[in-house]
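Feature request, filed as a ticket because there's no other form

It would be nice if the structure record came with a short human-readable summary line next to the C-alpha cells. Right now we just get the raw output. Example of a typical job, pasted below so the devs can see what we mean:
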Amino acid sequence: MKIGIVCYPTYGGSGVVATELGKALAGYGHEVHFISYAMPMRLDGFSGNVLFHEVEMANYPLFEFPLYTSALASKIVEVTKFEKLDLVHVHYAIPHAISAHLARDILKGKLCFITTLHGTDITLVGLEPSFLPLIKFTIENSDGVTAVSRFLREKTMTNYGIEKDIRVIPNFVDTEKYRRFPSGEVRARFAPEGEKIVVHISNFRLVKRVPDAIQAFARIRQKIPAKFLLVGDGPERSACEILTRELGLQDHVRFLGKQVELVPLLSASDLMIMPSQSESFGLSALEAMACGVPVVSSSVGGLPELQVHGETGFIAEIGDVDRMARYAIDLLANDTKRAVFSQACRKRAVEHFDVHTIVRQYEGYYEECLSGARAVS
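Raw output as currently delivered:
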C-alpha cells in the first residue's frame, strides 16, 4: 500500500507513535509518505520507501494567524494525487482530521482517511465549546477511527455522542530496541554510591503532575538512598527545579531535558513514577516496562489497561503522594521482588504491545476501511 501519515513532528506521544508506525509499515514493504510542517523527531536514518513532504506556510499581512489547516489540506491533496496514495492516516483530530476531510472533498471522495485519537485532542482541546461540533463531525465522517485505549474510546463516545464504531488499537513499543541492556556506565554517572535510580519522563505540563513525583521522591529519600532522573521539558520545569531546591534535593535530582535515546537511561533505572491526572495510554510507561522498569502510576485513563497492579507495578489514586512513595519504597527495598516485577513488565510489553503485533492490527484495519470506502464510492 501507499500510505500517507499526518502527524505532529514533536516529542509528544502522538508524533512518536505515528512516526514509529510509519517506519514499521515501511519495514513491511509499504510506501510511507509523512506529511507535516517539519521532519518528525524520530524519523532518523534512510529508507527508500519512506518520504517526507513538508507543509509550506505562507505569511500574508492580511491574516493574523498562519493558515495551517488549509495549507495541510492542500498538501494532502497534492501528495494523494501525485503519489497515488491508497489512504491517509491522520494522528490527532485537531486539525489533521479536519484537513483530511477537506482534502477528500476537494478530491471528490477519492481519498480514504483514518483518524487516530491520542488523548488531549479529545479530553482537553476537543472539549472547548467552539471545537465540539467540528470534532464530532470529523470523527463521524472519517472512513475509520481508532483510539489508543478503551478509556479514550468510551470518553470520546460519551463526550461527543458518537455512534460510529471506534476501534481500539493500543500504542506499541519496539521490544527489540526497548529492552534492558548493561548500564554500568550510566549508573556510575548518576548513582556513583550505588543508589537506586528513579525516573520520570514527560513533557512537564500541568496534567503530568511532576511536583507530585518530586514530593514522592522526597519521601523515598527518607528511607532509601536514591537518585531521581527527570527527562523532558515543558512549561512546569522551572517550578519543579525551584521545588527541588526548596526540598533540599538538588544534589539528588537531575533534570536531563529532552532526550532522544531513552534506552540507556531506562536500562539504568530501577523504578518509574508517573503521577499524571490525565493519561490516555501512557507510552513512556510502556517503554519503561519493555526495559524491565516497574511503574508506580496514578489510576487514570488508559494506565490501568497498560499495567497490572501488584504485578508490573502499583497504581494509586491521583495526588496520593504518600501511597505512591510507600509503593516505591516497597519495591526499591526488595531486590528480589523488584526483579520479579521487572520480568513481568517485560513479559507484558512483549506479549501485548509489541510493534509487530500492533502494526498487523493497523494493516488489517486499513484493508477493512479501504474495502468500505470502495463499496461506498
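Something like this underneath would help us a lot:
The mean pLDDT is 92.
The chain has two domains: 2-172+355-376, 184-353.
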